[in-house]
Structure formats: C-alpha cells, structure tokens
From TrEMBL:
Mg(2+) binds at T39. S-adenosyl-L-methionine binds at F36, C37, D38, G69, S110, P111, K112. Substrate binds at L11, Q12, G13, R26, T67. This is 7-carboxy-7-deazaguanine synthase. Homodimer. PROSITE patterns: RADICAL_SAM (PS51918). Belongs to the radical SAM superfamily. 7-carboxy-7-deazaguanine synthase family. InterPro entries: 7-CO-7-deazaguanine_synth-like, Aldolase_TIM, rSAM, rSAM_sf.
Length: 181
C-alpha cells in the first residue's frame, strides 16, 4: 500500500514538459519540510498498486508524473514496471535525497538547501529560487537546469539572476498563472 494525497489529470505546469497533459500521482509525506511546499502531508489514502493503476488508466494521456511530497519514499521498481506495462511514460519529481528505482523515464530533481542529493541520474534540475546560492546545482548530472520563482512571487529576481547566469532557464508555475490544478 502507498499513501496517496491525490491523483488528477492536468497539464504539466513546470520544467521541461510544461504544457504536456499528464496524470499526476501525488504521494503524501516527505523527508523534508520546505516552507513553500503545496502538498498537504497530513491527508492521503492508502492505495494498492492495482488501485493506482486503475485511477491512472481513467485518463487518455501517456505521461504519468509521480510527485509529492517526496515520491522517493513510496515508489519502487514494481510500481514503475506496472505503469510501463499499461503503456505509461513515467516521470518523477523528487528532492533527490533518496535513491530511486530503475526504469523511470524522466527524473526531475528539485534539490533543497542542506539536503544531500543521492541521485546518480537525472534529466532536469529544477530549483525553487528564494535567493540562495544555486551554483553548486549546476554540477549535478542533468541535461536541463531550471530556476523557478517561489509561488510566482519573486519572478523579477529570478529573471535577473538568469540573465547574469545563462546556464539556467526559467520555469514558471504556469498552472498557478492560468488557474488550473
């Protein structure tokens, strides 16, 4: 059983796949407690893999995004394999502090200050920028590096930073800007 906060269908609002339809499987619980997190960790329901798969299959898209909280606390190779068996492209959004099972198609690492990154593979790094030193994150083994304003509140500051440090790209929480889930 896995503790699920919610499963819903929407557009990816952040990072490399912005605008793509996806089924979001949001897990409850996290090993970190970031002040800007929008997950209600105290809520959730225990679901079996079969129940998760049935919920995911209700929607017409191929992409599934495992998010949280911290999905690395809950996701294992059995769930990833089961999602692949039903034809899904499996993405995960993680803080990177836990090793992940093999087979995940796209890894988004959103590292946090003072939390060690344990991932050996990631496709994108997406950092919520609140003025911290982000230069060390450019050494993480990813192909894409995004800075994201915190809840769309410090966008001008992020844009100014990126203009001075063009290794980064801007990620906006477009789902919040266009008022979708």
């Amino acid at each position: 059983m896995r503790k699920i906060n919610e499963i819903f269908y929407s557009l990816q609002g952040e990072g490399f796949h912005t605008g793509a339809p996806a089924v979001f499987v949001r897990f409850s619980g996290c090993n970190l407690r970031c002040g800007f997190c929008d997950t209600r960790h105290e809520t959730g329901v225990e679901m079996s893999d079969e129940e998760i798969l049935a919920a995911v299959q209700k929607y017409p898209c191929r992409t599934v995004i495992l998010t949280g909280g911290e999905p690395g606390l809950w996701v294992d190779e059995a769930l990833v394999d089961a999602l692949h068996r039903i034809g899904k492209y499996v993405c995960i959004e993680t803080n990177g502090t836990r090793e992940l099972p093999s087979g995940i198609d796209w890894v988004t690492c959103s590292p946090k200050e003072n939390a060690p990154v344990r991932l050996k593979r990631m496709d994108e790094v997406k950092v919520v920028y609140v003025g911290q030193d982000v230069s060390a994150y450019l050494s993480l083994p990813a192909s894409h590096y995004f800075l994201q304003p915190c809840s769309c509140q410090n966008t001008a500051e992020v844009v100014a930073y990126i203009l001075k440090h063009p290794q980064w790209r801007l990620s906006l929480q477009t789902h919040k800007l266009i008022h979708i889930q």
